[in-house]
Amino acid sequence: MTDTGHGLRVMTFNLQVDWDGAPHPWSRRREAAVDVLRRERPHLVGTQEGLHGQVRDLEAGLGPDYGWAGQGREGGTRGEYMAIFYDRRRLDPLARGHFWLSGTPDVPGSNTWGGGCPRMVTWVRFRDLATGGELCAANTHFDHLSAHAREQAARQLAAWLTTHAADVPVLVTGDFNTPARGPVHTALLTGADLVDTWDTAAERGPDSGTFHDHLPPVPDGDRIDWILAPRGTDVRTANVNTSAEPGRCPSDHFPVQALVHLARTVPEVPAP
Questions:
Q1: Which among 97, 197, 204, 254 counts the fewest CB atoms within 10 Å?
Q2: What is the pLDDT of residues 249-258, one digit of tens each?
C-alpha cells in the first residue's frame, strides 16, 4: 500500500486471542503477525483480541518507531486489548482514553446489555505531522453473541464520536462481529455520518470474508472487520490482506487495510 502524497495507511487487525491449548498458539503466529505490519508499514493500526503479552510482542517487533495505547477490557492489563498502534514519525498523540460499551461506560469491565463479555473502545486524538491537521482514531470489538448488545454499542459509539470528536476527522477500526451492510453497520454509519472505506475506495482488492478460521479465503464472504471514515474522505485503496505462508497464518482474521486522505482540520482555539 504505497502513496506519493500524504495518504494515511490504516489497518484493522484482529490478532486472535491466545489461550492454553490453542490449536494455533500465538507462539507460532507471532512472527507472522509482526511481519505483516513490518511489510505493510501502516501509520495507524487498530488491533483486537490481543492479550497484554501479545500487544507487548508487537511493540517489541515493531521497534521504537511505533507507539501504542490501550488497556485490557477487564481493566488495567486484564483481558483483551483494543490497542491502537501508530507510527510516531507520522502521528503525534495529543490525548487518549477508553470507555466501555455498556450503560456504565466509565466502569471498567462493565457489561449491561446482555453481551457475552465486556466490550470497550480505545481512542486516541492525534496531530498528523505530515499535514498539520488533527484526527481521532477509535478502535473497538463488538459482542459476538448478542445482536442487541451490538446495536446498542453502535448507537453509543456514534453518539460518542459526534459529541467528543465532532471537530476533527475520525477513523474507526474494529471487529464488529456482524456483516457489513446490516443494521449495526447502517446505525454506525448513519449515526456518526461515516462511510465504509471498502465501499468508497477508488480501487479495491478481491472481496473476501475477513474471518477465515485458518482456512482458505472465501470470495464474497462476510466482511466483519471494517475501517470507517468521515463522509467525503478520499479513499484511494482498500484491501483484505490474505497473505499467509503455509502453516504460518498470522491470525484467524485477515487484516483490512485502506489508504485515505483526510480533510486537513485544525480545531479553532478560542480567543482569550
A1: 97
A2: 999 999 999 9
